[in-house]
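Let's study today's protein:

:::
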Amino acid sequence: MPRKISIQMIADQLGLSKYAVSRALSGKSGVSQTTRERVLELARTLGYELPRQEDNTFPTAAGTASSFVLIFINQSNQGEPYYWQRVLGGLISGCNERGWHHVIVSQTFSSSPETAQSPQEAIAPHLDWSSCLGLIVLGSHPYDALQRMARTGKPLVLVDHSEPLLACDSVNHANIEAGITVTRHLLYRQCRKIVFLGDNSRSVSFAERRIGARLAVERYGSKETKLFEWELSYEEGGWQDAAAERLAHLPPEERPDAWIGANDDIALQWMRKLQQMEWSIPDQCRVAGIDNVEAAALASPRLTTVNLCKEELGTRAIESLQRRIERPGSPSEKIQLSAALIPRDSA
């Protein structure tokens, strides 16, 4: 009997999320035309039976045809294609399904004292706030900026960030779980000297993934297991040379047998640097990342990683906003999307 081709099989071969493949196959928004064509081509090649395109829409929860969602994203993240653009794609798709418009703001908020302006005027004076359904904030922003957004009186949802001092909904990846998962995999592979490569100043996510690695070593490691944490200047760039010099000065008996990148980009850059230094992967050491970006499946060797559903993060944020609109007095929710290991050749 021939093997049944599943959406997950197509996703694994292309290095995409199951969500993205599903939307591409069904003709829905949220993926680029290039991605859609790649998915359809592979599906036809494998003999996957393409579903009929459906026009599923949700009723508009509130407002008129001009109602919009105000989306905030840091300028430094707006052009990042592998993570934030995919999250943004999920947000936009969720808005489209509900008949909502969206407005993206990437301004930098100052931490200067409040003026006599209202929060609405300080944030976006050019908008008609009576048509604003709510605010969705991607990534880290200063607390005073988030406080200003909350004072608009509009529903507020944080994405890939939490702020315990604000009573608002948030949708996050299970970053600690991701750190535990990838570290435990390396421990199962008999790795005993593991280095976590990260930059705590970059995001809360990086710090949480580092905590997960620590917890995994404490729970599942042996007396011989050691976790080393190398802090990188990831935002500034050029960190690979500094890390390579640090590695070169280690005695042979202290050299790591495994590396974890706080994200796939760090892991991929470091794997290329190790290969330039004539390290054989995975023979001499293993390398793993977190995120499951498309480049991870195309690397040589293919990068072991932890899948985090970027598009789903965006769509769940829209679902949270809709719930908040429909049930304004309900308790705030902290949603975490689970992580899943994708073992490949590098580890």
